[in-house]
Specification:
This protein has 336 residues and is an alpha+beta fold. The chain has 2 domains: 90 residues, Malate/L-lactate/L-sulpholactate dehydrogenase, four-helix barrel (Hypothetical Oxidoreductase Yiak, Chain: A, domain 1); 193 residues, Ribosomal Protein S8, Chain: A, domain 1. Helix content is 45%, strand content 18%. The protein is built from 13 helices and 12 strands. The strands form 3 sheets. A 7-stranded mixed beta sheet has the order 2-3-4-11-5-7-8, sandwiched between helices. Strands 6-10-9 form a 3-stranded mixed beta sheet. The chain has a two-stranded antiparallel sheet with strand order 1-12. A hairpin with a 2-residue loop joins β7 and β8. α1 runs antiparallel to α2 and α1 runs parallel beside α13. The chain is globular and about 55 Å long.
Length: 336
């Protein structure tokens, strides 16, 4: 079905409110998933509302938690999400992080005790809008095995990077260190489709194209063989033990086989170009533009270009929502 964006936002907001989320949580979760949907990122779009509600029903997330911001050091801020979803915790900590980066040149924010479901670019883009270069890292559940393995060791462990550009959309990439986001496999299962070889293995560690087998008994694979697995390990370390939060293995144990969304932490690092470069910022950022133009001159696209194109189109024309998904969301509204 076709729906315009203001109506979609209202629809999602009141589903969340009616399920028991506070206005603040409902607003930030809604904004996060609708942003992904507008950009054509369906695996992190409004479909995620189903998982959010299931996690709430499983008592694995707080619908009313009020995040607490702790100013640790001049270059460090910590936000305790108190068991709530991460978007509200990020919103609470963002002004502190930006202020620290502007003053120190570089700063980091740890979000602890949060349930995470969202695309990282939604957060990174808010930092590039402030003129900052930014990184974000988070683990998930232990669903991913290194090449040659058969049991999950680390999570999909996404990382994102953002680079602001003058009068242009930021250069942003956001990808899982698994071969594909878990949501993509789940969507294939919902649609009755097999998955490409290389996304996962069966319970014996053999290549598998059955999404149910990969999700329930086998494991997902890291991208790029040992290189992706090594990056995944790095993300486990810096967004788990370094910030005193759970690893993907510990998050999966906390889940207790409920199928809820991951519970862990997130690390965000931001840098201020003006602190590094002073009055020469534009000179050096022009050098970066030369790199981007070399890519474009070969008829290639930059990361996020497709998202930005989708965004422009959907903001003008609205969205087409899968009928089955819309009916599931309607059922949530009705049950509340």
């Amino acid at each position: 079905m076709h729906i315009d964006i203001p109506n979609l936002k209202t629809f999602i907001y009141y589903i969340l409110k009616d399920q028991g989320f506070t206005s603040d949580h409902a607003q930030e979760i809604m904004q996060t998933v609708v942003s992904a949907e507008i950009d054509g990122c369906h695996s992190h779009g409004i479909w995620r509302i189903l998982g959010c509600i299931q996690t709430l029903h499983n008592k694995k997330v707080s619908a009313t938690a009020e995040p607490i911001v702790k100013d640790i050091k001049p270059g460090l801020v910590q936000v305790d999400a108190k068991g709530g979803f991460s978007p509200l915790a990020f919103k609470h900590g963002l002004p502190y992080l930006i202020d620290k980066v502007k003053n120190q040149g570089i700063a980091a924010m740890a979000i602890n005790h949060c349930v995470h479901f969202s695309a990282l670019w939604v957060e990174v883009e808010q930092l590039t809008h402030a003129g900052l270069v930014a990184f974000a890292f988070t683990p998930s559940h232990a669903w991913v095995t290194p090449e040659g393995g058969r049991q999950g060791i680390f999570g999909t462990n996404p990382m994102a990077f953002g680079w602001p550009r003058k009068n242009k959309e930021a250069f942003i990439f956001d990808f899982a260190t698994s071969a594909v986001a878990r949501g993509e496999i789940q969507l294939h299962l919902r649609e009755g489709k097999s998955i490409p070889e290389g996304w996962g293995v069966d319970r014996e560690g053999k290549p598998c194209t059955d999404p149910q087998e990969v999700l329930s008994h086998g494991a997902m694979l890291a991208f790029g063989g040992h290189k992706g697995a090594t990056l995944a390990t790095m993300i486990e370390l810096i967004s788990g033990p370094l910030i005193a939060d759970l690893t993907s293995h510990e998050s999966l144990a906390y889940d207790e086989n409920t199928g809820s969304l991951p519970y862990h932490g997130e690390l965000i690092i931001a840098l201020d170009p003006e602190s590094f470069l002073g009055g020469l910022v534009q000179d050096h950022f022009d050098r970066a533009e030369f790199i981007f133009q070399q890519i474009l001159d070969q008829n290639l696209r930059l990361p996020s270009q497709r998202r930005y194109k989708n965004r422009q189109h959907h903001l003008q024309h609205g969205l087409n929502i899968n009928d089955g998904l819309y009916q599931e969301l309607l059922a949530l509204k009705a049950e509340s």
